[in-house]
């Protein structure tokens, strides 16, 4: 997918009336990061892009989507799920495995993000723990998923679930030899 991340970021920053330095301060990232991303000299990690977008009060779907999903839609075919993986460059791809995220409908309109997630064997959200202002939970449908929340670590198997305050640093990792499937929810939406 040919999406010009730098041009889109520059467009949104300019529309918000912010300098690169002002956006960097709001987002809590180095000024140089904004400049290199806007010039397409670097591809930010998901965590860094999330911080930058938080500084603009924009979510991933709004950043990468040309059009918003229908807000009044109730039922969704498998093909109608929004593939967040394909719109986020390098989305949660570790050296060992990929994580796929598919969203149900317009998360922003409902203030609820429902995701169908697939973690390939070895997939890992990264050693840098995630943290964001949300609550999240999910159910493991198949496979094994190691979840770290703060100092607590547990491997969940099919039928087991999790629920926590997302402000607590957390990490997800497939420690099994088969893909792991999860259905999760997050409010307010994170991605």
Automatic annotation (TrEMBL):
Pfam families: Cupin_2, HTH_31
Segments forming domain HTH cro/C1-type: 9-63
GO cellular component annotations of the record: cytosol
Entries under SUPFAM superfamilies matching the protein: lambda repressor-like DNA-binding domains, RmlC-like cupins
Gene Ontology MF terms: DNA binding; DNA-binding transcription factor activity
Alphabetical list of InterPro entries matching this protein: Cro/C1-type_HTH, Cupin_2, Lambda_DNA-bd_dom_sf, RmlC-like_jellyroll, RmlC_Cupin_sf, TransReg_Diox_bact_type
Protein name in the entry: Cupin domain-containing protein
